[in-house]
């Protein structure tokens, strides 16, 4: 019934299988990719016609993780997958970025790419598999896709490159790299990475290793296409626009060339808009049977702008703002911008500016992430906001776009490798970047500003990190790499190449291109030029703050960490959390305890932390006979008082141990809630504690000499003298208890000899 086509490839120690023809047969192209026991289905559909007046390519990519793939039910009230998570958004971008440049110019049919994770084995990451499935589905669909592309994840362990490690393996104690690469047969298309300060040579080697492995996947996709590809679409021939462009060049070419020499972005845009209006006025003054004819010509103004800017850079080395190709714009950095934030920085590079703030929180402020892998928690968050006023525009405000999510994650990856471990710095960290001006790489401004704000907050990062965006102008074999690109150089250029790192090495690399890929020579040149740019930016950052402050902000909560024995965790928490809630309520400090016995006590008041720490120490510490403690009277009974000491222990102060002289009633000496000094006299084999107040100076807590005569030793059977079998009148209580009773009571009221006469009969 099914005409199923399958290809398989042994790749990285597992079998990669691509199947089509059985599932989603009404889509233009559908491929189910399996690697290990992870399965991703990708379906591609394309519109057969273009909407009237449409002049852009409407490609949409959606990646979704089905919780059932991992045998899990989604959390929350509705119990179904909802809006895209951060990971799903980022993976959608991973698929979109390398395939978008591979559609021909002038192709404006809407295309929908949907990738769904159907099975997840807990080891094989589905994002790479989704990229491969999308490439294969596009390749067999018949749409004019100039692929296929391959994709690979690369790790770096013990000096060796590792193909397709799990995320936990990529950056564990030995892993130093998590790199994702997409490439065609001839060139790299997209790079996304986080690294633990790799050198340029190590990073370049990883990219080339990934490219080589991607070629194997491309071969498998081609084999599948030879069996199952649909007939390619017939494209309408693209009209030759060169004559119209030359016509526009004669009309406004000089105006545009002059405009793109203006340094100020606002003035430059005004001049460019004036040139466009000049062309519009010219064509409107002519007689036209069809207004769409000259409107189509006006759309080619951007082609002319691109041609003018690119030729000026390639031939004359003349950039838009007059800088040299490797020159970074003026930088101004400052910290401590805001008075009440825990850390803040203002980073300005040319006409790009970011206000970055750092907030420190306790463990309960960690971000909970519910995904295929299960629940996890992150103690470092970086949120990037790009309001429309930053580019002088009116636009939608208040929602997080895919672009903002991607830029924030790039900055997160750049800063994460230099953060201290949770055992050394037990804080939850949130960095917030608000872009207030933008004209070229606000994500790299976020890296620089975010780093400064964390150092201002007292986060002990290993080394400062800076970032720079590189551009490329490529014409045939001629190319020029640009440092610190402007927004216009990004739009009119061929590459957006972002590198972040410390003086020791690279922490993050991201690359997107608009052409059919770049070569090793171009990447090597870009990495070397970026290294010099990063060093310059670090020098400018050091003028504001060269290292983390010695202590955290006075407005941040203090956190103290202590380790207790695992067997004592239950005692600290108490039944139903009673004890730990009491500690929090009484001291005002927050207390968190994990399964390993690590306790974090936090408060902005140091005295609250100290009180909670002493309380917990009292719970877990073993009482010592002969040691003096401070306690609180918690209960008074006829024969003495129970005193709570060391936080979680109670002991009895017998009435005879309250003072050296006779005490009629315990309430004559103590009251509930009173603080007293006690000495541990005895701990029996059941853990019951006998305490004494009379041998401790209640003012100073010093031990007093015990002047009371020693007691007689206890006789057999607990010190009860006499023959237990004799007549009642002959049974006396000897030893300690008998003597004490004789001291404190009249003979007629004692149990020794005679009969007790009730008070109401005495009269």
CATH topology of the largest domain: Ribosomal Protein S5, domain 2
The helix-and-strand class reads alpha+beta
List the total number of helices.
17
Mean pLDDT: 87
Biggest sheet overview: 8 strands, antiparallel
Number of domains: 5
CATH architecture of the largest domain: 2-Layer Sandwich
Task: Tell me, briefly, the overall form.
Answer: elongated
CATH secondary-structure class of the largest domain? Alpha Beta
Strand order of the largest sheet: 8-7-9-10-21-20-18-19
What does this structure look like?
The chain has 763 residues and is an alpha+beta fold. The chain has five domains: 5-228, Ribosomal Protein S5, domain 2, CATH 3.30.230.70; 243-316, Orthogonal Bundle (Arc Repressor Mutant, subunit A); 331-544, 2-Layer Sandwich (Ribosomal Protein S5, domain 2); 558-692, Nucleic acid-binding proteins (OB fold (Dihydrolipoamide Acetyltransferase, E2P)); 716-755, no CATH class. 30% of the residues lie in helices and 27% in strands. The chain is built from 17 helices and 29 strands. The longest helix is centred in the N-terminal third of the chain and has 29 residues, at 200-228. The radius of gyration is 38 Å and the shape is elongated. Residues 626-694 form the S1 motif domain.
List the helices and strands and how they pair.
Blueprint (H helix, E strand, L loop, with lengths): L4 E7 L2 E7 L8 E7 L2 E9 L12 E7 L20 H14 L11 E9 L6 H16 L8 E8 L2 E4 L3 H4 L6 E7 L4 E8 L4 H29 L13 H18 L5 H20 L6 H8 L2 H16 L14 E5 L7 E7 L2 E10 L5 E5 L2 E5 L1 E6 L16 H14 L12 E10 L4 H16 L8 E10 L2 E6 L3 H6 L2 E7 L4 E8 L6 H25 L13 E6 L5 H5 L4 H10 L2 E4 L4 E6 L2 H15 L7 E10 L2 E6 L3 E6 L20 E9 L5 E4 L23 H4 L15 H10 L19
Parallel strand pairs: 5-6, 16-17, 27-29
Antiparallel strand pairs: 1-2, 2-3, 3-4, 4-6, 7-8, 7-9, 9-10, 10-21, 11-12, 12-13, 13-17, 14-15, 18-19, 18-20, 20-21, 22-24, 23-24, 25-26, 25-28, 26-27, 28-29
Pfam families: KH_1 (PF00013), PNPase (PF03726), RNase_PH (PF01138), RNase_PH_C (PF03725), S1 (PF00575)
Family: Belongs to the polyribonucleotide nucleotidyltransferase family.
Protein name: Polyribonucleotide nucleotidyltransferase
């Amino acid at each position: 019934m099914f005409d199923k086509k399958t290809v398989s490839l042994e790749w990285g120690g597992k079998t990669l299988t691509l199947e089509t023809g059985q599932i989603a047969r009404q889509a233009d192209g559908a491929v189910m990719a399996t690697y290990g026991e992870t399965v991703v289905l990708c379906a591609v559909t394309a519109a057969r016609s273009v909407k009237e007046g449409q002049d852009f390519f409407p490609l949409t990519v959606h990646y979704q993780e089905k919780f059932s793939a991992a045998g899990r039910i989604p959390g929350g009230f509705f119990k179904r997958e909802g809006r895209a998570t951060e990971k799903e958004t980022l993976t959608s971008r991973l698929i979109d970025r390398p395939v978008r440049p591979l559609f021909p110019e002038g192709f404006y049919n809407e295309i929908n790419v949907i990738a769904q994770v159907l099975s997840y084995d807990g080891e094989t990451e589905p994002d790479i598999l989704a990229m491969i499935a999308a490439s294969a589905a596009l390749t067999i669909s018949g749409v004019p896709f100039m692929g296929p592309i391959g994709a690979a994840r690369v790790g770096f362990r013990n000096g060796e490159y590792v193909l397709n490690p799990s995320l936990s393996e990529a950056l564990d104690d030995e892993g130093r790299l998590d790199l994702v690469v997409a490439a065609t047969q001839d060139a790299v298309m997209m790079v996304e990475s986080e690294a633990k300060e790799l050198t340029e040579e190590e990073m370049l080697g990883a990219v080339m290793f990934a490219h080589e492995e991607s070629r194997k996947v491309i071969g498998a996709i081609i084999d599948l296409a030879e069996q199952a590809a649909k007939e390619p679409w017939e494209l309408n021939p693209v009209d030759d626009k060169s004559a119209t462009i030359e016509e526009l060049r004669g009309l406004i070419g000089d105006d545009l060339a002059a405009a793109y020499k203006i340094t100020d972005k606002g003035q430059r845009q005004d001049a460019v808009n004036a040139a466009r209006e000049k062309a519009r006025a010219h064509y409107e003054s002519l007689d036209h049977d069809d207004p769409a004819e000259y409107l189509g010509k006006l759309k080619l103004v951007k082609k002319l702008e691109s041609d003018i800017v690119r030729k000026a850079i390639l031939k004359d080395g003349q950039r838009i703002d007059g800088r040299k190709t490797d020159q970074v714009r003026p930088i101004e950095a400052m910290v401590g911008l805001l008075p009440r934030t825990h850390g803040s920085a203002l980073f300005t590079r040319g006409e790009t500016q970011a206000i970055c703030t750092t907030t420190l929180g306790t463990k309960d402020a960690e971000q909970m992430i519910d995904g295929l892998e299960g629940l996890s928690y992150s103690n470092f968050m970086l949120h990037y906001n790009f309001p429309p006023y930053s580019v002088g525009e009116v636009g939608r405000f208040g929602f997080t776009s895919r672009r903002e999510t991607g830029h924030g994650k790039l900055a997160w990856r750049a800063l994460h490798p230099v953060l201290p471990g949770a055992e050394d710095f037990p804080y939850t960290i949130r960095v917030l970047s608000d872009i207030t001006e933008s004209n070229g790489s606000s994500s790299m401004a976020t890296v620089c500003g975010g780093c400064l704000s964390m150092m201002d907050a007292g986060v002990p990062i290993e080394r400062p990190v800076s970032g720079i965006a590189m551009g490329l102008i490529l014409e045939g074999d001629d190319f020029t790499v640009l440092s610190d690109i402007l927004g216009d150089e990004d739009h009119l250029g061929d590459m957006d190449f972002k590198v972040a790192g410390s003086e020791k090495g690279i922490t993050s690399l991201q690359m997107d291109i608009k052409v059919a890929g770049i070569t090793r020579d171009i990447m090597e040149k870009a990495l070397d030029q970026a290294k010099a740019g990063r060093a310059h930016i670090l020098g400018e950052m050091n003028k504001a703050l060269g290292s983390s402050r010695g202590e955290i902000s006075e407005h941040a909560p203090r956190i103290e960490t202590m380790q207790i024995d695992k067997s004592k965790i239950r005692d600290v928490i108490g039944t139903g959390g009673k004890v730990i809630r009491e500690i929090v309520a009484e001291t005002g400090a927050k207390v968190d305890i994990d399964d390993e016995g690590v306790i974090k006590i936090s408060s902005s008041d140091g005295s609250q932390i100290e009180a909670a720490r002493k309380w917990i120490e009292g719970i877990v510490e073993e009482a010592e006979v002969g040691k003096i403690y401070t306690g609180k009277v918690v209960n008074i009974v006829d024969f003495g008082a129970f005193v709570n000491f060391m936080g979680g222990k109670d002991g009895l102060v017998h009435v005879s141990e309250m003072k050296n002289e006779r005490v009629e009633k315990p309430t004559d000496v103590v009251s509930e809630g009173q603080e007293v000094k006690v000495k541990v006299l005895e701990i029996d084999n059941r853990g019951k504690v006998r305490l004494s107040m009379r041998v401790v100076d209640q003012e100073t807590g010093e031990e007093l000499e015990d002047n009371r005569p020693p007691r007689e030793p206890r006789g057999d059977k607990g010190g009860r003298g006499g023959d237990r079998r004799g007549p009642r009148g002959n049974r006396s209580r000897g030893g300690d208890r008998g003597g004490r009773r004789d001291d404190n009571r009249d003979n007629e009221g004692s149990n020794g000899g005679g009969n007790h006469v009730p008070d109401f009969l005495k009269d």
